[in-house]
Amino acid sequence: MTDLFATESKLQPAEMRIAKFGLGAVVRHRVYPFRGVVFDVDPVFDNTEEWWLAIPEEVRPRKDQPFYHLLAENAESEYVAYVSEQNLVPDTSGEALRHAGIPDVFDLDEDGAYRLRSAHAN
């Protein structure tokens, strides 16, 4: 007989970490030249094993940390990125983001901060 609860979670609640960056936070990658705004957070890795294994082993992030979905951009393009917390730092440049998807997800408040549009709030 299989214990249904044994496979429900690989991490115990005490092992879960609180995300360092919230929705609307502007961040940049610690190594690669891109930045973006957080629109979703996974408490631990929640992508495919194939995606994870495609990352070179010497820079492959741990799975037991928050992972962030970003509306990301670099000098050439705009895209959605999935990035581990260990690879993100706050972006303090003050430069506006140009990602075309931002108005669909966020409103800009009077202080220039990104706030989820009410249609996207959980």
What does it look like?
With 122 residues, the protein is mainly beta. The chain has a single domain (13-120), classed as SH3 type barrels (Roll). The chain contains two helices and seven strands; from the N terminus they run E-E-H-E-E-E-H-E-E. It has helices at residues 49-53, 102-105, and strands at 26-29, 35-42, 67-73, 78-84, 88-90, 106-108, 114-116. The strands form two sheets. Strands 4-3-2-1-5 form a five-stranded antiparallel beta sheet, with no helix packed on it. Strands 6-7 form a two-stranded antiparallel ribbon. The longest helix has 5 residues, at 49-53. It starts with 25 loop residues before the first strand and ends in a 6-residue tail after the last strand. 19% of the residues are buried. Residues 1-14 have low confidence and may be disordered.
C-alpha end-to-end distance: 37 Å
Number of strands: 7
Helix content: under 10%
Provide the low-confidence segments as ranges. Answer: 1-14
Average pLDDT rating: 87
CATH-assigned fold name: SH3 type barrels
Q: What would you call the structural class?
A: mainly beta
CATH superfamily: Hemimethylated DNA-binding domain
- Rg is 16 Å
CATH top level is Mainly Beta
List the helices and strands in order. EEHEEEHEE
Reported CATH architecture: Roll
